[in-house]
# Entry
Amino acid sequence: MAIKVRKQIYIEQEQNIILKRLSDERGMPEAEIIREAITQHVQGFRLRRRDLRAWAAEREFIEQLSGQESTPEYRTWQREELYER
# Structure
């Protein structure tokens, strides 16, 4: 079992009502619900961080493509033709 550290926090009245209801519904101590919420919150940050790295790789890929010369000889249409449809 992990060592726990005592913390005193202030929450809003509505949060207190929700916390008490969750505690009753789940049969869990309020402190355990708070600990689980912190863990889930932190995991959400980790997932977002991974997503940001994926977007950075995507940006790099797009920049590489945008640096290449256009090849209009392979295209059978003109941009203006798309607006005429």
